[in-house]
């Protein structure tokens, strides 16, 4: 079904903000049996569609989050099975969603992307037998009203009064004489696109592991897992009884719900009973990040069947599995996977619980490889990269968040490590999925950003136009020179840009950008380096300089030794933040200090991943010290430090693309010592070409490796003793009689 050439939408103007969610209905007649029927639907807001009393599709928050000033998505549903000869009704409920709900900035104002009200667009095409046809589109003949959803927004939550329900409103024969006619709106300047990324769906249900009364009439449910979604409520009581559900990630010392770290997000859902029997309810247009739910006003004594947690996220296939001899490492991967799922809501968000939940580019930048190891993002990333391109400023800067709400959220000039996600993330997508068309599509935005940085920093040092310049954000004690860090990041983008141009056959651009890369490298070395050492070098600077090839071969051992000395001086602890952490363990492993990388991975005290887990974390924290830090910026579900999983999959298991899209695979495992916590591992990665499986074990006498790769691929296997082997599709086994020391 092609999209319309002009978008006509309908709404129900109302002065209340926040206000009730509008309901729309259109009754129509089909004269003959239906051959096929398709429904195109979109909204400025979030829409749930119904046809003859049945919900259409299973997606939530459709049509997803874009910059609605520029781009709007739509979905097409096959509804042949729902349309019947005779009278039919198409209905829809529209909530504020990301279009009309509050957004960070000036007082969390609503309708940051456009003017009220929320609006619906629908086009139903019914093809009957023997050539008959019926077309229904949104116009002023649709009827509209408000109903039981009094408010429903992301941060505050939903208020639902079941006494205001309108039984049969989405079925033929309903009396809509008191409903008003919808108002039509023609929306100019929007690009209308078929949604290509998977929709948000319920992917899992969790039952409470405990329920207890924390004070009279107030009960606390523990779902056992920090999840993102909503709760389904089962309740029976008198009409007008009000049940409130308040959500939070952690508890106060006295065992009550802690919500200070949610800041302005009320995260509270309210249900008012209609009475007369058992009632089942779940919110429609909100979501929360939580492990615990505080329930007040329940009529009676709730139990574990009263509440069910529904996990909501963009329904991407999960593709990476790993199991090691270390329960800690296994838990880090599991917690990171939960963090990805919880922050995958049409964009990659930073956190799912407080009054923020934005597409912060620094988080996406560092986490993109890990995200691709854990989930198939081949359909998701092109959409998200388009969000980055839509947010790009006319003079070339990418922004710190995408979609960009407004310049009063963050400065228009993006920060190092954040803005360059517009270069890094597309390249990661190319490496994992081999989609050259993606590079063609986003060449111009990438080139504009790179040239913008070059224009304002002609000497190769990224000293100008750095926006908020967050540096190595929230480090564990390290102090990193921001200009040096920015210059290393610019070095990387110049390298990627040159390679990008080479893939596309743009020889002049590839040469120009390669020269710039050389200039930036020399400028960094001249300003900060002396024979393998970095002036005031932090762990982050050493790790990134090693990763980005700053040092000559003879200097690398000196740099690795300096990095190792800093780690050991801190009692074998890291000091890095968001930008330095992903590079740290790979730099150590590649530099011959795999023993130190293993030690950092397996630490249990602060700062470490084990410290989080020892304190009950079921997702990754925003801060290394979230257990002792204040509430102002303290998410317990922030995937950034889960970026260590890139090392777990790519270095520990040893699965990396040798050519884009895993046409050729590099298998280079780095084991621990025999009898150690990392003496065995099995991993599977379902690449775009098929499953890649690696299993290894270290015994006192040997290193044993099994590899299985899909058809159409070849693998280079590098064993711990440095021997190289070629592996063809199917299973292969390798043995090294002298294992590499851990």
Strand and helix layout:
Blueprint: E1 8-11, E2 22-30, E3 34-44, E4 46-51, E5 54-55, E6 71-78, E7 86-95, H1 97-100, E8 119-128, E9 133-137, E10 143-146, E11 149-153, E12 157-161, E13 180-181, E14 183-186, E15 191-194, E16 200-206, E17 210-215, E18 218-235, E19 242-248, E20 250-251, E21 257-258, E22 268-272, E23 279-281, E24 288-296, E25 307-314, E26 320-324, H2 327-342, E27 344-345, E28 347-348, H3 361-374, H4 380-391, H5 421-433, H6 436-441, H7 443-456, H8 482-503, H9 507-528, E29 529-530, E30 533-534, H10 539-547, H11 556-569, H12 581-590, H13 594-602, H14 609-614, H15 645-652, E31 655-657, E32 664-667, E33 680-687, E34 690-698, E35 703-709, E36 714-718, E37 724-727, E38 730-736
Parallel strand pairs: 6-15, 12-22, 32-36
Antiparallel strand pairs: 1-8, 1-14, 2-7, 2-10, 3-6, 3-8, 4-5, 4-7, 8-9, 10-13, 11-12, 16-25, 17-18, 18-23, 18-24, 18-25, 19-22, 19-24, 20-21, 26-33, 27-28, 29-30, 31-32, 33-34, 34-35, 35-38, 36-37
Helix pairs in contact: 3-5, 3-15, 4-5, 7-8, 8-9, 8-10, 10-11, 10-12, 12-13
Features:
742 residues; alpha+beta; Jelly Rolls; Glycosyltransferase; 4 domains; 10-stranded mixed beta sheet
Descriptive report:
This protein folds into 4 domains: 8-197, Jelly Rolls (Sandwich), CATH 2.60.120.260; 202-314, Galactose-binding domain-like (Jelly Rolls); 320-652, Glycosyltransferase (Alpha/alpha barrel), CATH 1.50.10.10; 661-736, Maltose phosphorylase, domain 3 (Sandwich). Helices cover 24% and strands 29% of the residues. It contains 15 helices and 38 strands. Strands 11, 12, 16, 17, 18, 19, 22, 23, 24 and 25 form a 10-stranded mixed β-sheet that branches. Strands 1, 3, 6, 8, 9, 14 and 15 form a 7-stranded mixed β-sheet that branches.
